[in-house]
Write a structure and sequence with these properties.
Protein name: Iron-sulfur cluster insertion protein ErpA
GO molecular function, one term: 4 iron, 4 sulfur cluster binding
InterPro entries: ATAP, ATAP_core_dom, FeS_cluster_insertion_CS, HesB-like_dom_sf
CATH topology: Hypothetical Protein Aq_1857, Chain: A
Low-confidence stretches: none
CATH architecture: Sandwich
Number of strands: 9
Radius of gyration: 14 Å
Number of domains: 1
CATH class: Mainly Beta
Mean pLDDT: 87
Pfam families: Fe-S_biosyn
Number of helices: 1
Structural class: mainly beta
CATH superfamily: HesB-like domain
């Protein structure tokens, strides 16, 4: 059985900051075909999960993964980084055999 993706405390903390003082939204992480390496990450905010989503919860926050994307994200780590070049959610994916320089596109 494949391990589900994990979400770091830092990513849940950032979601908590985004949701502070308003109706909470969830972070959706999905895989789409395309990008310069064959697949790309689709990271966006959504109001509610779909019936068949995997829901990862921590610090009162939720991260959603659809069943089609789940095998591509097995064992991945969803994190948040705040660097000089910008702040963003990032994915450390052990299934990716190569990726582009910006880290949003990968191949398996």
């Amino acid at each position: 059985m494949n391990l589900p993706p994990k979400v770091t405390e830092r990513a849940f903390e950032r979601l908590s900051q985004i949701n502070a003082g308003k109706d909470p939204v969830a972070l959706r992480v999905a895989i789409l075909g395309g990008g310069c390496s064959g697949f790309q990450y689709d990271i966006r905010m959504e109001d509610a999960p779909e019936a068949d989503d995997l829901v990862l919860e921590g610090a009162g926050q939720r991260v959603l993964v659809d069943p089609v994307s789940l095998p591509y994200l097995a064992g991945a780590v969803i994190d948040f980084t705040d660097e000089l070049i910008g702040a963003r959610f990032v994915i450390q994916n052990p299934n990716a055999t190569s990726s582009c320089g910006c880290g949003t596109s990968f191949s398996i």
